[in-house]
Amino acid sequence: MAVTRLKRKDRRNKNTAHQEVAFLKRATNIELGSRSAQPKNDQLAKNNAVLAALAK
User: Fold this and answer.
1) Does the residue 40 lie in any domain?
2) Which parts of the sequence are annotated with region: Disordered (predicted)?
3) Are the C-beta atoms of 11 and 17 separated by less than 8 Å?
4) Which pTM value belongs to this model?
5) 42 found inside a domain
6) 38, 44, 47, 48: CA torsion to nearest 10
7) Could you report the per-residue pLDDT of 1-20, keeping only the tens digit for each?
8) Which of 1, 2, 5, 35 is deepest in the core (most CB within 10 A)?
9) Would residue 38 count as lying in a domain?
């Protein structure tokens, strides 16, 4: 059997749905107490502390 090509709208829908699923997977993989939690002494925490001090 020959492979049928998807029409442009269907290709776009397939691609969009795939991207939405990938985004949701990335957004929900951080849990409290897991190894992916942000360390206290990481650079982002230091930057936030400096910005908070400057904002006062």
Assistant:
1) no
2) 1-21
3) no
4) 0.36
5) no
6) -50
7) 567 788 888 888 888 998 88
8) 5
9) no
